[in-house]
């Protein structure tokens, strides 16, 4: 019975955002017991740490511990409607040219589907390999260096080159790829050093610039790999009527706390992972919850999920994130 009442309190609080009283539970949920019995059980649940009280109301609100037992043991499975499934599947069937565009569009679609802030933490470059290196002439002494990775990302920069024909530039591109392609970015610097010992001084400066650029790709911070969408959705939640909380939230989104928290918080063994309140390691996100899944691109992993108040519709959040996680893995496995 306590489990039923805890579930009812959480579901009612998620709907209304208001502390929940025993009369509301008795009226709206057919539990077959009186308001007095429900009130006593809610008192027990508070003593056990699953519910808490606010200063301004006699009703109860769920604690982090209450949400955790609800997510792990009590909540049912939510199913997407056939219409919603078809709409989301049509998004994944659309022709998106590259991985980065796909991830950015997925963030937008996920935020619209859940009405929370959606995020993707892109794969780390360090474990990826280079598929192709191209040098394209721009001016007499400049070339565009184009790097294509095994996970579909394309990076480029301008580098200095000595005057050379297009044929010689193609030779240099082939030479670079022969020695630096199909190895992980973490090993590029050593390979470039070996190449420098073998090649003529004419190409030494090009090799150094290419190696430095590849090396810089592995130094992207988590915040630079983080795509977010739907921040305005959070501001519609009752939790953000206080201007100070809005300012704190905006600062959290700007300073990379979301990405850092995902990287350092040990997630539960569930898939998708759900971290609630104090389970998060970064102080500024301890009033929030994360629901996220893992996708693979080549040899690298990324995360996709949502971020919102602890008063979250967890069954639906898990169902939608699971849908995106599964479809991203299918698509990126095929493209790999």
Structure in words:
The chain has helices spanning 2-16, 22-28, 35-47, 64-74, 82-93, 99-114, 166-180, 188-198, 204-217, 231-235, 243-254, 257-264, 314-335, and strands at 51-53, 60-62, 117-121, 130-139, 142-149, 154-160, 226-229, 273-276, 288-297, 300-309. With 336 residues, the chain is an alpha+beta fold. The chain folds into 3 domains: 1-74, Winged helix-like DNA-binding domain superfamily/Winged helix DNA-binding domain (Arc Repressor Mutant, subunit A, Orthogonal Bundle), CATH 1.10.10.10; 82-124 and 224-333, GAF domain (Beta-Lactamase); 129-220, Enolase-like, domain 1 (2-Layer Sandwich), CATH 3.30.390. The strands form 3 sheets. The protein has a 5-stranded antiparallel beta sheet with strand order 7-3-10-9-8, sandwiched between helices. A hairpin with a 2-residue loop joins β4 (130-139) and β5 (142-149). The radius of gyration is 26 Å and the shape is elongated.
Which tags fit this structure?
336 residues; five-stranded antiparallel sheet; 10 strands; elongated; single chain; alpha+beta; Beta-Lactamase; Arc Repressor Mutant, subunit A
Number of domains: 3
CATH architecture of the largest domain: 2-Layer Sandwich
- Based on DSSP secondary structure assignment, what is the total number of beta strands? 10
Helicity range of the residues? 40-55%
Task: Give the oligomeric state.
Answer: single chain
Contiguous uncertain segments of 5+ residues: none
Distinct helical segment count? 13
Query: Might you state the CATH topology name of the largest domain?
Result: Beta-Lactamase
What structural category characterises the helix and strand content?
alpha+beta
- Classified in CATH, the superfamily of the largest domain is GAF domain
What is the general shape? elongated
The residue-averaged pLDDT reads 86
- Write out the strand line-up for the largest beta sheet, numbering strands in chain order: 7-3-10-9-8
Please give the CATH class of the largest domain: Alpha Beta
Strand content: 15-25%
Give the radius of gyration: 26 Å
Describe the largest sheet. Answer: 5 strands, antiparallel
Q: Could you give the distance between the termini?
A: 50 Å
Q: What's the helix-strand series?
A: HHHEEHHHEEEEHHHEHHHEEEH
């Amino acid at each position: 019975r306590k489990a039923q009442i805890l579930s009812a309190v959480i579901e009612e609080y998620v709907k209304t955002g208001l502390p929940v009283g025993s009369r509301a539970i008795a009226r709206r949920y057919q539990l077959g017991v009186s308001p007095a019995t429900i009130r006593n059980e809610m008192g027990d649940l508070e003593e056990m740490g699953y519910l808490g009280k606010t200063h301004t109301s006699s009703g109860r609100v769920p604690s982090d511990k209450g949400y955790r037992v609800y997510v792990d043991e009590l909540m049912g499975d939510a199913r997407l409607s056939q219409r919603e499934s078809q709409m989301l599947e049509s998004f994944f069937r659309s022709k998106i040219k590259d991985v980065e565009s796909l991830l950015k569009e997925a963030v937008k679609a996920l935020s619209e589907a859940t009405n929370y802030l959606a995020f993707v933490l892109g794969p780390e470059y360090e474990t990826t390999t280079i598929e192709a290196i191209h040098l394209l002439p721009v001016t007499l002494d400049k070339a565009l260096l184009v790097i294509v990775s095994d996970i579909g990302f394309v990076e480029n920069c301008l580098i200095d080159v000595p005057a050379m024909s297009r044929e010689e530039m193609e030779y240099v591109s082939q030479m670079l790829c022969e020695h630096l392609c199909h190895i992980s970015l973490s090993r590029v610097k050593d390979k470039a050093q070996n190449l420098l010992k073998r090649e003529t001084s004419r190409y030494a400066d090009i090799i150094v610039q290419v190696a430095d650029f590849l090396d810089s790709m592995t130094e992207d911070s988590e915040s630079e790999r983080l795509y977010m969408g739907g921040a305005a959705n959070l501001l519609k939640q009752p939790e953000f009527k206080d201007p100070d909380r809005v300012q704190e939230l905006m600062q959290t989104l700007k300073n990379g706390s979301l990405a850092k928290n995902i990287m350092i918080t040990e997630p539960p063994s569930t898939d998708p992972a759900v971290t609630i309140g104090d389970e998060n390691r970064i102080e500024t996100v301890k009033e929030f919850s994360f629901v996220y899944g893992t996708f693979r691109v080549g040899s690298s992993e990324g995360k996709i999920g949502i971020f919102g108040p602890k008063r979250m519709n967890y069954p639906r959040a898990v169902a939608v994130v699971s849908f995106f996680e599964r479809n991203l893995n299918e698509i990126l496995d095929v493209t790999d």
